[in-house]
Each structure stands twice: as structure tokens, then as C-alpha cells.
């Protein structure tokens, strides 16, 4: 369930945490990278807490469209900018220490979450078992021709791979016809 502005203090605290770590003022009307990164961090963390675009936009003095844009772009920024990712993780950790979502859950919600996590763990373990079996089959198939691969690797001169491949195709086609 999305919440409008259930806890304004939560938003204020997150803004303060971001401004401290990014050393900026998120409400400044500019596109300085630290300010943008801080606003993206705030947008993402509040969306994950269930806040709607309009509430986040209002808190940051931006439109809901800007918040949607932040949500679409943040993953690629986190992947490509290590400094941003480091600051994001610091902000996230500090924010979640203060506003741990599990502290807001009822006993039954916690039990349900544990059950779901247990099911997810079992599914992941089954997936790992399946991947190990698939790997074993592929390795077994690969081992069967490992000697041939080693010979081709050792005897093929650098830059002659395509010619070697064509020659092997001609040889195998002639051999099997």
C-alpha cells in the first residue's frame, strides 16, 4: 500500500542524512551532481518505503515526473558511479537504523515474512542444485573433447582462428560424408 505522507519526520530525517553525506542542499534549484544524487537517493529510499511520487516531489520541491525519472535512472547510476553507490549505501544504512521497517511490522507480519523468506531460501537452494547438475553435465561433455580443444588452442596461430575453424569444418564435413 502506497502512503502519501504518513511520517513527515521520516522524510525530514532522510533529507538531513542525505545532505550530510552528499554535502549539499537538496532543495537548491540546480543540477549539481551531488544534489541530483542526493535527490535520487531520497526518492528511491522513500519509494521503497511506500511513499507516492507526489509526496516525494513535494518534499523535494520537484514534480512527480522528476521522481519517476530518478526511479528509472538510479540503478544505472549506482552501477556506474562507485562514489555515488558508496554514499547511497551509507545513507541507506543510517536511515534504516533509524527507521527499520521490521520495527513497524506486527508479530503476524514478521512470522509471514519469515515463512516467505524460508520458502525463497528453499527455492534458491533448489535452483543452485539444478545449476550444479547442469554444470556437471556440461563439464562432462566438455571433458570428452578437451584433448581436441587443447590441440587446436596450442597449434592455432594468433589471428588464424577463422581459417582454422574453416579448415576444421571442411575436414569434419569430408570425414563424416
Throw out a few tags for this protein.
177 residues; mainly alpha; Chromosomal Replication Initiator Protein Dnaa, Chain: A; 2 domains; 8 helices
Task: Tell me the domain tally.
Answer: 2
Summed over residues and divided by their number, the pLDDT gives a mean of 90
> How much strand?
under 5%
User: What is the CATH fold-level name of the largest domain?
Assistant: Chromosomal Replication Initiator Protein Dnaa, Chain: A
**Low-confidence segments:** none
Q: Structural class of the secondary elements?
A: mainly alpha
Please specify the SSE layout and strand pairing.
Elements: H1 8-22, H2 33-48, H3 53-60, H4 64-80, H5 82-98, H6 107-144, H7 146-155, H8 161-176
Can you offer a commentary on this structure?
The chain starts with 7 loop residues before the first helix and ends with a helix. The mean pLDDT is about 90. It is built from 8 helices and no strands. α2 packs antiparallel against α3, α2 packs across α5 (about 80-100) and α3 (about 55-60) crosses α4. It has 2 domains: about 10-105, Chromosomal Replication Initiator Protein Dnaa, Chain: A (Orthogonal Bundle); about 105-175, no CATH class. The longest helix has about 40 residues, at about 105-145. About 75% of the residues lie in helices and about 0% in strands. It has helices at about 10-20, 35-50, 55-60, 65-80, 80-100, 105-145, 145-155, 160-175. With about 180 residues, it is mostly helical.
